[in-house]
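User: what does the whole thing look like in 3D?
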Amino acid sequence: MKLWKSTAAVLALTLGASAAQAELSGELRIFSDMSNPAPRAVMEGMVADFGAMHPDLDIELTIIDREAYKTQIRNFLTADAPDVANWYAANRMRPYVDAGLFEDISDLWAEPEIADALASTKGAMTLDGAQWGVPYTYYQWGVYYREDIYNQYGLEEPTDWETFKSNCQTLLDNGVKCFTIGTKYLWTAGGWFDYLNMRTNGYDFHMQLTSGEIEWTDERVRQTFANWRELIDMGAFVDNHQSYSWQEALPFMVNGEAAAYLMGNFAVAPLREAGLNTDQLDFYQFPTITDGIALAEDAPTDTFHIPSGAQNKEAAREFLRFVVSADNQTKINAGDALGQLPVNSNSSVDDDEMLNQGFAMLSSNAPGGIAQFFDRDAPAEMASVAMEGFQEFMVFPDNLDDILNRMESTRKRINEQ
Amino acid sequence: MSQAINDQTSWLRRNRLTVTPLLFLLPAVLFFLVYVIFPIAESFQISFYRWDGLGEPRYIGMANYEELWTDRAFEVSLWNNMKWLALYLLAIPAGLMIALFLNQNVVGIRLYKSLFFFPFVISQVVVGLVFTWFYDPSFGLLNKILTGFGFDAVNVLGDPKLVTYGIIAAGLWPQTAYCMILYLTGLNAVDPEQVEAARLDGAKGPKMLWYVILPQLRPATFIAFVVTIIGALRSFDLISIMTNGGPFGTSRVLSFYMFEKALSEYGFRMGYGAAIAVVLFLIMLCFIAYFLWSMYQDEKGAR
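Assistant: Here's the predicted 3D structure for the full assembly of 720 residues, as structure tokens:
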């Protein structure tokens, strides 16, 4: 940790020096979707710091509600492009890259400070052999569980499918649901599919499936659903999950009616706020299902891009360099800021139980690969049909054939376009 | 001389009887063209294209409509629209009942009327939230009552068979209040002399209502019918708030499906969304044509 910090300091010095050489002036317009309180403070802090480094630069920051941003970005990229804009990695960039609305910033990625320090996320930023943005944060997915309940029934963190299921059976025998989930907004079921499929068939298969190269009616996909069905038939998930959002599913875990939650790290903050302390809340990596398949993880990455219609691309590039710099990464991903993982390998991870486990898992125990998340890896249209199918499957598992046929016809139609 | 002056009076002056109404109509017509007619034409046009809203639209003929024909989600939405249309009309008799009940002079009647009217004043979003909590499978009032009487709990909004009826019930609450207020004002205009005369002839109860009161309420009934049909076809906010179209798309109606396909996070199939909009427009057109025809007949009768 100490070593990182010192190298980070050196890097920051060199970066600061190079920044001072290029005197930036004019206006820098930034549109951001970091509208929740903590991300908003981070974004405003970054603008303040960057502004202090470049006093001649006039920075104008516009923060837009995170959900509204998803539709507004289409308008402002075409009509009134800012110099820097937030978005997401992987296939989510596809519409804007195809329409030529994002600037190709492969030149930035060729610079040694970025090429070396951000190597782990380069794949997620690459489409058609070029890079279209830089990441600023990412977070792990995995099973967050009630340590005290596991201890009460003498359960260990499972590393294989059999233990995973036997743990669950023990919990059910004691009247505790194994997993809470709220599928009202569908995407939470996508997380379960990601993990079950990556553990059953591996990362490469999962990527081929989400990119539409493999039929949904394939026997291997059916095997994934068969594994899922084992849990559903046991009654592992809370009842009526189709009526709850992911936040509304939290109380089941807080009240001890359910013992675990397959979620992103953002669930930790509300669980802690609801009163769960470090002895009650812990984390484990989703266990192996098929032996010999390398473990792969979901770790969604949030990003910054330069629209191709930007006016001040020089300043925008400098801002992107600043965002991914080791020092800034350490600062904005700290527990009192975003509370997530820095993308720069020279940054230090905040000393937080979950972040440390997540960082260790992603850097040393995810040899299979890092996926973005179902609705970022699959085309949007496929994602909406498929996630609806996942929800239906979780309620009516007998409808599987019908669901898979529907998904397959959607895949065919998308591929024909 | 005077002949010459007459000839010189401007064209405008001579035709002012024709020009004045046209000038008065011009702003409204302009806005109507820009905000109603052109968008409708554009929807028709876009529905023949494949377009993600960013790139170049590509002409694909009737392909969007052919896909609609085989799209089960579209079929479900269409059926749900029919359920909405049929069941939403219950607001009219219900509103009439309440209006008749409240049409009396007792102390505090204004307060009671306001309380009954209250659900129409609050936002549909709030109505949706209130009913979501009412139906909630774990702490909702409905299930507390059901289990209290020894029945099994039902997850209304999570059951594909019940969900649309559950949302319609929520929608009927404010819509009934709206119909009630329409009938209350209508009842004020009922001619007391006719009621008196009918009473002397021995009419009372249902017969009085059917033959004497209701014919006089015809204008109110017509308006109630219009706003209820429009309300049923516009049922978007309640669905969005209560279920987001779920579970697995079983509570969607055409307007919601159109929004999902064209404008939501995973949508941006503008052509397909436009095709759905065209179908919805054609359904609405049936009702609009009927309303216009019916009003035209009334006007003719009044002359």
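In plain terms: The CA atoms of residues 28 and 158 of chain A lie 50 Å apart. The radius of gyration of chain A is 22 Å.
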